[in-house]
Amino acid sequence: MRRVTLFVNGSARNGKVVAVYGALSDLLSVASNKLGIKAAHLYNGKGGLIDDIALIRDDDVLYVSEGDSFIDPLADGGKDADADDKCWGCTDWITLNVGGTYFTTTRSTLVNKEPESMLAHMFREKDAWGNKKDQRGGFLIDRSPEYFAPILNYLRHGQLITNDGLNLLGVLEEAKFFGIESLIEQLELAIKISLPAEDHTPISRKEFVRFLLATPTKSELRCQGLNFSGTDLSRLDLRYINFKMANLSHCNLSHANLCCANLERADLSGANLDGANLQGVKMLCSNAEGASLISCNFEDPSGLKANLEGANLKGVDMEGSQMTGINLRVATLKNAKLKNCNLRGATLAGTDLENCDLSGCDLQEANLRGSNVKGAIFEEMLTALHMSQSVR
């Protein structure tokens, strides 16, 4: 009776001595049971494939594979019994093949820093996850080596260090994949800090004039939501421009032509619009608190009415402005100065006129129904104010 010693391919430990009988398939079946693998091929010590039972001699040492090529257990990178035993000691060395790049580290590095991470679970106990190795004995990990390197260094010394030009988002994804929780927080903060700050610098007069010159007169310039805070736009032709929700606070718009411009929900607080042409302007729900609109012209000969419905006009100075037919419904004009304004046919229904100075105004046919006139001044009126204008 012949007997042989069987080892798992690439290993020289935990061998099994078995008797040889029957056909080669019988020996493979015995090898599967003894070694706990699905035996497919037998190799001798020199890597020769055994394909006939007659080639086996008594006391041969054979290596059993599951179909993979022969791995010499004594070759460089292979694992003999002594090396394998040392590999899983407290100061063992482990080689990782991450996306084709080799990293050598200790088991304690992978386990101790983040004990609940994927790497810690993979290498805390031998073969707990059935980790696959390449021919050099490196554990195969299908991830990006470029982004894995900072993670391994973090596990070594606890500091996040990256080279210039490395995308931190890639490192973050690797940290999430491996479950390095303490590193995830640092990376998210570093990414937030590295993002360029939002540019809220106001557009200058020079830049805006360049836009105007490049835009055909029949085209509408879209300036919705842009920041013009404090910019000097005086005396410019700004007809039909869309300034919706734009920041025009403390802007100098004196003597500018804003005919039919859209200033809906725009911020005009503290702006100077003295002498501006505001014919047919749309200023619904705009904020012009504290602005100066002295001697402005809201009156369009074609009959197109300026619309300031719901606008915040607290404390504005509109003295001497032409406002025939203007729509100021439910607007707030508290403490505003409207002396000597032409408000013929104006809609002031529901308007807050508390402490508003309307001295010398022409309010003929103006609609004041439901308006708040507490403390309002109506001295030197050009026309009589009838009750029908203010009472429903």
From TrEMBL:
GO terms for biological process: protein homooligomerization. The keyword rRNA-binding does not apply. Pathway: Protein modification; protein ubiquitination. Residues 3-82 form the KHA domain. SUPFAM superfamilies: Pentapeptide repeat-like, POZ domain. Pfam families: BTB_2, KHA, Pentapeptide. It comes from the Eukaryota. Keywords: Phosphoprotein, Repeat, Ubl conjugation pathway. InterPro entries: 5peptide_repeat (IPR001646), BTB/POZ_dom (IPR000210), KHA_dom (IPR021789), Pentapeptide-BTB/POZ_domain (IPR051082), SKP1/BTB/POZ_sf (IPR011333), T1-type_BTB (IPR003131). Gene3D superfamilies: E3 ubiquitin-protein ligase SopA (2.160.20.80), Potassium Channel Kv1.1, Chain A (3.30.710.10). Substrate-specific adapter of a BCR (BTB-CUL3-RBX1) E3 ubiquitin-protein ligase complex, which mediates the ubiquitination of target proteins, leading to their degradation by the proteasome. This is BTB/POZ domain-containing protein KCTD9. It comes from Callorhinchus milii. The lineage of its organism: Eukaryota, Metazoa, Chordata, Craniata, Vertebrata. The gene is kctd9a.
